[in-house]
Design goal:
The chain contains 11 helices and 12 strands. The protein has about 300 residues and is α/β, with parallel strands linked by helices. The protein has an 8-stranded parallel sheet with strand order 3-4-5-8-9-10-11-12. The chain has a two-stranded antiparallel sheet with strand order 1-2. Helix 1 packs parallel to helix 11 and helix 3 runs parallel beside helix 5.
Length: about 300
């Protein structure tokens, strides 16, 4: 495993982390604790030390599964979670952004994770109106001073949101989480330059383009109603899969695992600190970790 410093936080994070939205049950599968333990064990073995979760991946369900999996060696992990929503039904969220609501979410997350601190607490894809809330950020900074939160971050949406990225340092955030992959390079235009200028750590989410860059799917693939990918039109999925096929043929080296190549592609941009792919089993964790063999030195990329 390779490690990089996460912006100005000083935290040394593995360049490959573990994303855990799938544990909330919206990716076509419900997970047992034993299955989650096996995924986390594979991460330990690979040298991975960052786990990204959220309050609304299930009703704190992902956090509870993660908390149980890491409680025996909590101090070895960088736990990143998020705030701003409440899970109601699959693929739907209630918006909860007041300082009081978020403080309760933090307490609930700590309880679910079975810990007394969060390494990285992230504003979760809220609008700019929700972002511009001095009372919220003051409360979060107070929690950081208490040691309940070690560092603050922003998970932006859309991935072109330069407004929140440009104001990260002002509100005390030190990291940006953003959708970035070979099929969606939009952050390279404005977001990444703003991250570099503020020394913000960057967590690249959806680095495998929801699995379309994993090499497992072909145009025509269909997903179950319990899989978030079924919420998009089939024609849109087919277009993405067709583009992925072109990339496989023209860019992925012969004999290389496409998923590992796609993760390494993200990590070669010098703004990106860590990729956080989701993984459903230990084999996928090990395959993701092998991306480090293809990374080389970071470099700035242009569209």
């Amino acid at each position: 495993m390779k490690y990089r410093t996460l912006g100005s936080t000083g935290l040394e994070t593995s360049v490959v982390g573990i994303g855990t939205w799938q544990f909330g049950g919206e990716w076509g599968k419900e997970f047992t604790q034993q299955e989650v333990d096996a995924v986390i064990d594979a991460g330990r073995e690979a040298g991975i030390n960052l786990i990204d979760t959220a309050e609304c991946y299930g009703d704190h369900l992902s956090e509870r599964l993660v908390g149980s999996a890491i409680k025996r060696d909590r101090e070895k992990w960088l736990v990143a979670t998020k705030f701003g929503h409440h899970y109601s039904v699959p693929f739907d969220r209630d918006q909860r952004w007041s300082a009081a609501d978020v403080k309760k979410q933090l307490e609930d997350s700590l309880r679910a994770l079975q810990t007394d601190y969060v390494d990285l607490y992230q504003f979760h894809s809220g609008t700019n109106d929700f972002f511009d809330n001095d009372e919220l950020w003051q409360m979060l900074r107070e929690q950081r001073e208490r040691g309940v939160i070690r560092h603050l971050g922003i998970s932006i949406s859309p991935n072109t949101n330069s407004y929140q990225t440009g104001r990260a340092s002002t509100v005390g955030a030190e990291t940006i989480q953003v959708v970035y992959n070979r099929l969606d390079r939009a952050p390279e235009q404005e977001v990444f330059p703003l991250c570099l200028s503020q020394n913000l750590g960057v967590l690249a989410r959806v680095p495998l383009a929801s699995g379309f860059l994993s090499g497992k799917y072909r145009p025509g693939a269909r997903f179950s109603a319990s899989d978030v990918r079924s919420q998009r039109e089939a024609s849109a999925n087919d277009a993405l899969l067709a583009e992925a096929e072109k990339i496989r043929a023209s860019e992925v080296p012969a004999g290389a695992d496409m998923a590992a190549w796609a993760l390494a592609w993200c990590l070669r941009h010098d703004a990106v600190t860590c990729v956080i792919p989701g993984c459903k089993n230990p084999e996928q964790v090990a395959a993701n970790a092998r991306a480090v063999e293809l990374v080389g030195e970071p470099r700035r990329q242009s569209v």
